[in-house]
């Protein structure tokens, strides 16, 4: 870690103020294409983190009573501010995370869609009414906010995933403490600035930074009522278990190993283009990436063309025009990807395209790895079982659609899957039989738009409600049921009723 005073520091957001941390523990935010230190991020002290939670708790007293129209208009303004600043946000994101500028704009835009959805909270947070359920008795429900909620977000989507979390929570009447990834927090902080500019009151949104201690404080703090997490399976399992044992609600979106089935009747060129984009885009650093392809029957002959398309992708810094694949986020991420490729070779997979050590003029120190393709992969191999989180594609073969479905259903993860075919019957059979939460039909990365909710399943998810969409409103609110009866002023009282039945 560096302590050079000329390097800017990332601030904490506590009670509407951007605060310089007093911590002695800092981490460098590094440009993965150049290794330039962009900023220093603090690992907040316990006192600072507690102050953020206390601020949120105090702000909840008034925010929960803020009219729904006022809340909605704040997010209408925020979506306009994000739209107006999308180029700047993308540039910050690319510098600290590495993805290409078009991909960075997409990262921001997919979060922006959730902000737009949050602006419609008046239609999302409606209760139910049943009139005259018994003699003169009505029953209705209220969806009321929980209190202080918290979010823990990963490095790979430092704009989109924070925007999955705090807008829906805050629009529903809660206050929020956000802990972004310490690897690339700068774009998240710019979004927090825009959120304050849009009118989010002091204390309603707070941002802390840190590592394990920050995660554990969020899981343990008695004033935090709900925790939302996106990240690795190891950390997500820890968060879910620790938070729920402390009586909190938790939703954890975790690791994946997504598969696509390619039937021989699929549109060949469209399918190959989709596979290359989904497998290698964002340097493979997406939980909804497509790291496994199953070629069925005659589609197995498509492998050479898939390799040629992958070879045509341009590897460069994300800020350079025409770049298809930017660097991995860190040196340690690059080392892990490279070691898994080596392990795949040792275990007998056939390395038909080796993307290691590409030469990128002007960026000799970047964390670059190019498209890598293995064939002859078996389900026992480490490269199949582990989430590589890099631009590495495993190609498997199957004799039939049912054999391919059985292979996918045997994998413990259930984030996303896809099929490429022209057959409606095959597609419908696939969507009915596959045990995966998000299904694409000729769509390689089937992340739903915000009017629906992210619905990964099995080992990819803990908790029964997903982020954003209607499920997020359910997650961030408590249903209160009210049963009421009103008597007419001149009504004569009847006999005392000692039963619990309403008549």
Automatic annotation (TrEMBL):
Pfam hit, one: Aldedh
Residue span(s) of domain Aldehyde dehydrogenase: 18-482
InterPro entries per the UniProt record, alphabetical: Aldehyde_DH_dom, MeMal-semiAld_DH
Highest taxon of source: Bacteria
Family indicated by similarity: Belongs to the aldehyde dehydrogenase family.
Protein name: CoA-acylating methylmalonate-semialdehyde dehydrogenase
Record organism: Geopseudomonas aromaticivorans
Origin organism lineage: Bacteria, Pseudomonadati, Pseudomonadota, Gammaproteobacteria, Pseudomonadales
């Amino acid at each position: 870690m560096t302590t050079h005073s000329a390097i800017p520091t990332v601030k904490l957001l506590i009670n509407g103020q951007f605060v310089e941390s007093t911590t002695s523990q800092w981490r460098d935010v590094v440009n993965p294409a150049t290794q330039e230190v962009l900023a220093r991020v603090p690992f907040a002290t316990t006192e600072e983190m507690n102050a953020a939670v206390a601020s949120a708790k105090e702000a909840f007293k008034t925010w929960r009573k803020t009219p729904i129209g006022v809340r909605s208009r704040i997010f209408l303004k925020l979506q306009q501010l994000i739209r107006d600043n999308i180029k700047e946000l993308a540039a910050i994101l690319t510098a600290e995370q590495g993805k290409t500028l078009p991909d960075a704009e997409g990262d921001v835009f997919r979060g922006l869609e959730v902000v737009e959805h949050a602006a419609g909270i008046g239609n999302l947070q409606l209760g139910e009414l049943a009139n005259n359920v018994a003699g003169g008795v009505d029953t209705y429900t209220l969806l009321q906010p929980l209190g202080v909620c918290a979010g823990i977000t990963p490095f790979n989507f430092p704009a989109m995933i924070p925007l999955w979390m705090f807008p829906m929570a805050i629009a529903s009447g809660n206050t929020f403490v956000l802990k972004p990834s310490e690897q690339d927090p700068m774009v998240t902080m710019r979004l927090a600035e825009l959120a304050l500019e849009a009118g989010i009151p002091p204390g309603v949104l707070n941002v802390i930074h840190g590592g394990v201690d920050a995660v554990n404080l969020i899981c343990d703090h008695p004033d935090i009522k709900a925790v939302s997490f996106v990240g690795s399976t190891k950390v997500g399992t820890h968060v879910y278990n620790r938070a729920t044992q402390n009586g909190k609600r938790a939703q954890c979106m975790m690791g994946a190993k997504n598969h696509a089935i390619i039937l021989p009747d699929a549109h060949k060129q469209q399918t190959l283009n989709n596979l290359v984009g989904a497998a290698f885009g964002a340097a493979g650093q997406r939980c909804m990436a497509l790291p496994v392809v199953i070629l069925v029957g005659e589609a197995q002959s498509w492998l050479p063309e898939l390799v040629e398309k992958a070879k045509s992708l341009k590897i460069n810094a994300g800020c350079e025009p025409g770049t298809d694949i930017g660097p991995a986020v860190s040196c340690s991420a690059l080392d892990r990807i490279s070691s898994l490729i080596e392990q795949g070779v040792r275990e007998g997979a056939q390395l038909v395209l080796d993307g290691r050590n590409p030469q990128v003029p002007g960026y000799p120190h970047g964390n670059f790895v190019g498209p890598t393709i293995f064939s002859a992969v078996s389900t026992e191999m480490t490269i199949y079982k582990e989430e590589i989180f890099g631009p590495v594609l495993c190609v498997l073969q199957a004799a039939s659609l049912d054999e391919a479905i059985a292979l996918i259903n045997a994998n413990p993860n259930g984030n996303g899957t896809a099929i490429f075919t022209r057959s409606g019957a095959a597609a419908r059979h696939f969507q009915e039989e596959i045990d995966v939460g998000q299904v694409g039909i000729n769509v390689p990365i089937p992340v739903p738009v915000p009017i629906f909710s992210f619905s990964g399943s099995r080992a990819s998810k803990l908790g029964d409600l997903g982020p954003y969409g209607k499920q997020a409103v359910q997650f961030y609110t408590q249903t209160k049921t009210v049963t009421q009866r009103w008597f007419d002023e001149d009504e004569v009282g009847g006999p005392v009723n000692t039963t619990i039945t309403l008549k």
